[in-house]
Amino acid sequence: MDNQDLYKTLIRLDGKGYKAYKDIKGNYQFPKFELIFEHIQGDPFASPSKLIIKIAHEVARFPSDLYKNESRKIALEDYLIRQFGQVCQQVSHHRGSGKSGSISIIKIGQEILKRTAANIKKNEIEIRFSVGLPARGRTILGHQAAQMLCEDIPDILEQSLLYQALDSQAIQKQVETAEDADWIRQNLLNHNLVAFIANGSILPRKSGVDPRPLEKDVIPFQSPKSLEITLETPNKGLIKGLGIPQGITLIVGGGYHGKSTLLKAIELGIYNHIPGDGREFVISDASAVKIRAEDGRSIVGVDISPFINQLPQQRSTHSFTTTNASGSTSQAANIIEALEAETNVLLVDEDTAATNFMIRDRRMQQLIAKNKEPITPFIDKIKQLYTDYKVSTILVMGGSGDYFDVADQVIAMDNFQPYNVTEKAKKIAQEKPNERIIEGGNQFGKITPRIPISNSIDPSRGKRDVKVKVRDVDQVVFGTEDIDLTAIEQLIEPGQLRAISAAIIYAKQHYMNQNNGLPNILDKVMEDIDNEGLDILSRFPQGDFVLFRRFELAAAINRLRSLKVQ
Fold this sequence. Notes:
The protein is of the alpha+beta class. The chain has helices spanning 3-13, 57-60, 70-91, 142-160, 168-187, 259-267, 327-340, 355-358, 362-367, 382-389, 422-431, 494-510, 518-532, 550-558, and strands at residues 27-29, 34-39, 49-56, 103-104, 111-112, 118-120, 124-131, 135-136, 139-140, 193-198, 228-233, 237-245, 248-252, 272-273, 282-284, 288-291, 299-302, 320-322, 345-349, 392-396, 409-414, 417-420, 468-471, 475-478, 481-484. Among the domains are: 3-166, no CATH class; 454-558, no CATH class. It is 30% helix and 19% strand.
């Protein structure tokens, strides 16, 4: 069928009941593209209909150099989603009841991520989006639907998906920026680094709810010369900035001078950022995991004995389970779970950490003997993590100089500028020796992978085999339970939660058995996504899946209150 067939059908449906819209399901050939109705909503108040545009490369005419590798391809797809979304906002308007008249695509932030909303394939570009088919009450507005589908959508395509209509320099800058960022991230290990912050970066954000860069009274980042390194990139050439080496790095300084702002930028340096974000070249090890205390979370079968042992009533911590974790037990579990998922870098901010987990000073040691204190503080394990497992730590610490003894480098933030104070910190540590007793033993301890029991993961609810719903970016309704991911700060888009929910079901169906430990399950799921794309997680094309990391998938599995492990 073609666009004229669609137009005539919509006019014929005018005035009929809403369910008659089912008649338009199918594929329609327009002069420059193919329009596919993948799902038709059953009600004007229901989730909008799902549509797909396919446009051949010879029509879109994007130079193949713009998508010659995965970095560039993802960056171009990201650019097209943004352009399509901007034009949708200009063109679509309310046309009746409920969601009538809406034309929209997935909403995205400052980061460049692989999303199923746009797919550059061998012969075509595919865009997945949503349309609220117009109605008054539950009566079809056929003429308005015809205008939307046969006029507005071709207009949106003309303005957002054809190379000649777009800013070629902006596109080139985006793909080159993403390629350079990936290049740096892939080469951090070769330079023995865990993070890199380019000179001139703008780290502060407009607000806690607005992730765009601060514009007024902003101070560009400038590395101290003693920590400054130069990296060469494929497009931008040489870039200078602060290189954070492997090992233990303390970020210190007075309150409100930028310690947490720097760590937050490093925390999100696992993602590429759009040009103009200010953090385009704040690059972190792809496996870096933010760790915090998380009162009240569920923990299932985690060996937290490296940090917590000898609980009252001889309760074992080698397979620790609780439905209501304390600050210290949750932080211990979060670290062990990140290690189980094979992180190389831990990111910790004292502001979101449990105080009794981080430090036990000499006075407290004298008052409460070690045989009465189950917690081995992080300060006594942080060095062993690096020597035993090569896991580095970047730690914001403004309240305890005891960490000077274990730090490899100390960076002081003063008015949002970094200074290398390592020598000064070491000198203070020598002149004022720490009298506290080291409590951590000689080794960190074993990391024991767990085997999830498939039957304990149940996405069904009532008569529905699968009931999954995402609420914003921090909560998933999974079957009969809620998964609270509020504390997983490196999740940035709801689409990641939708994809993670589907990945849990996929893992249960394909890889959860009595032989596969959680790290092996994560390996297999992520390998399948890498080879086949996010579409492998669903039987039907989804336009709102966003790529996630193994660490956030593990975090969601670990927070299932129904989870059982062996």
